[in-house]
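During the second year of the project, the team shifted from modelling isolated chains to modelling whole assemblies. The rationale, set out in the original proposal, was that interfaces cannot be judged from single-chain predictions alone. As a representative example for this report, we include one of the complexes processed in the last quarter. Its constituent sequences, exactly as entered into the pipeline, are reproduced here:
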Amino acid sequence: MTSADAENDQAAVLAPNSLFEPVRLGAIELSNRIVMAPMTRNRAHDHGLPSDLMVDHYAARAEAGLIVAEGTWPSVTGQAYCRQPGIETADQVAAWRKVTEAVHAKGGRIVLQIMHAGRIGSRHIKPEGVDTVAPSAIQAQGKVYTDAAGMQPFDVPRALSTEEVEEVIREHGRAALNAAEAGFDGVELHCTSGYLPIQFLCSGTNKRSDQYGGSVENRARFARDCLAAMSDAIGADRVGFRINPGNTFNDTSDEDSVASHVELMRRASQLGVAFLHIMRAADSAIDAFGLAREHFRGSLILNDGFDPESAAEAVEAGAAEAVSFARHFIANPDLVNRIRKGLPLAKFNRKTLYTPGPEGYTDYPTAAD
Ligand SMILES: Cc1cc2nc3c(=O)[nH]c(=O)nc-3n(C[C@H](O)[C@H](O)[C@H](O)COP(=O)(O)O)c2cc1C
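Output from the structure prediction step:
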């Protein structure tokens, strides 16, 4: 390499990249705009207790401007998957505190994704006597892996009474409070992928006749009220939500997905929540990012299918305040450093995504190793 090449190389390394500009999402200050998207990895202990492996996993990725930690149940009724963590009990709060302290010690920021799965559940996963609930008693087509009995169809859910819906909303407020007590910088409500908030929002899964069903205003009320309860608990400037208009995952169908999501974004804007984590459905013609810019007044995190170049372009163009990566963070704990230095990205092993133990979770090396 000649000295001119070395200089060019250095210039490439130091080229301004909008991903490395600090930004605020409400009250949360990010040192860069590279967000780690939430990923369920099934490494918690029994009773939804976060494990020390999770501490290591998140701490290793703390250079992200923000980590959105994996979908976590606000109450055990909302558990979807084996070895999925909760944020309901004092023990869970104490165990999560180890995660947030490790991330903060490295200068990182971390919010928790609150995920009530509703009808996406199985009695083979939850403790005995815990029901699977939903807006209406309509079973989701599909199966879920259970440690106890292998692949199982989703339960036929029990429809929540109006009083029970209100209690589930209060649970979301308590979950946000618990997350703050555990040291999280904020929370993100999971409003996509066929879980409870989207079961209420979509006409295919919501056949209710009370104030939580029927019109699009009524179907958006559950997610809106959860966001309000979370905002009351910890401040709207520490609350965000995640949507994916047009997404059909987990047997989701809606007569007008755009209208439903626009209504939700409008109501969330009125609450003043800090950020919207907006995904685009691969097989949909909906311009999700454009809709989000038009109808949501807070900050945007874009997601799905970005690489370092397209993410930088999106931020540069002002399409969003930040971009999130999920899969690239699996095998690249030092993803931020690799992007900064233009280093190649490693590929992850699909077989160890959801298996217990460190393999494929905490044993991916950094580029310098
Ligand atoms: C292993 C795995 C687990 C996931 N778990 C969650 C989750 O808990 N909550 C969620 O909102 N999205 C979840 N997702 C979706 C990702 O956050 C992200 O939206 C998706 O992978 C697309 O982003 P990417 O192209 O950067 O990977 C998961 C994805 C993967 C690969």
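The mean pLDDT is 95. The first strand starts at residue 23 and ends at 25.
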